[in-house]
Amino acid sequence: MAQQAYMTETDNGGSGPEHRGSRLRRLADRLLDGWRGDPRIWRRGVLTAAVALVLALVMLLHSRIPNRVGNLGSLTETFLPWLGLLVPVLLVLALVRRSATALIAVLLPAVVWVNLFGGLLTDKTATGGDLTVATHNVNADNPDPAGTARDVAASGADVLALEELKASAVPVYEKALAGTYRYHSVQGTVGLWSRYPLADVRGVDIKLGWTRAMRATVASPYGPVAVYVAHMPSVRVKVNAGFTARQRDKSADALGEAIAAEPLPRKILLGDLNGTMNDRSLNEVTSQMRSTQGAAGSGFGFSWPASFPMARIDQIMVKGVEPIGSWTLPRTDSDHLPVAARVNVPRSATGS
Question: For residues 303, 309, 311 and 316, what is the CA-based torsion angle, rounded to 10 degrees?
Fold first, then answer.
């Protein structure tokens, strides 16, 4: 009797796979009821579909957006990943409008976004690495330079670059970092601290009239590495002028020329470039070097603003060394997040 009662209960209202499957089918049927036989399903949502197509074209052809008017192209490329947030919005609108046309159109920007940025969503970090490097725009108005110095030194970086160093704060950074780094040099408003000896240190002219970039040879145990530190001029978004970046672009060209002329095959660039890897105005630099975040990071690695990071404008880029890992460091009293990376240094003197 008990067995019969059990069988009856399961047959009529059990929670087995078959019953759950039938419930899902009924739910799907209810959702589709309003779509079946609707003659307007292809005519509704034309505006939503048009917006989706424009969005896909903007992401796909971002390099064709002209910079002649307010550097609109560079502005779009700075925040290009965030355009993906419009895809779920358009998807909801397509569902609300019950538009098959809009639903199909929304697939286009979704596919383009995944093609552009899907690779950044996977964790490409590996273990090991010969050198750990880090860079941080410390903010000239930093209220606690000593604390910031200790925080970034705690990252374990073998080579540390700092940008936006105010002259009066330089002795504070030097004192706070002296116990960790035996070697250092400050050139203008940028500085380099290293566990290994530095040689051939000099400022790099990026067409500003004062020094905001430098290079040095780091005598690592694995061979000499040319390390560049740079702080590109700031950019602004103005209602009457758009994205003002002319001086930044000019300085980026000069920096790219200096790096291209570097005789050492192993090169690392650390700094605040005030631009992302997507920004075509940094092509003189980005075309010849790899981003450690793109090659060996996890996620987008946004670094600015520190309160709500929206863009990676602080960069670690390499040529002739192999990125192993890349990440952002905890927030300091700066308006930027520090970023760090691990790299392998080829033992051959001709590594590229």
Answer: 10
Q: Mind listing the pLDDT tens digit for each residue in 179-199?
A: 999 999 999 999 999 999 999
CA distance 45 to 101: 7
Long-range contacts, 197-204 (Cβ 8 Å, 24+): 199/224, 204/228, 204/230, 204/254, 204/255, 204/258
- Closest alpha carbon to 197 in 230, 166, 228, 221: 221
Q: In which order are the strands placed within the sheet that holds 314-319?
A: 198-203, 213-220, 223-231, 267-272, 314-319, 290-291
Which residues are CB-contacts of 286 (< 8 A; sequence separation ≥ 6)? 277, 279, 317
Beta bridge partners of 327: 340
**Neighbour count for residue 172 (Cβ, 10 Å):** 18
pTM of this structure? 0.85
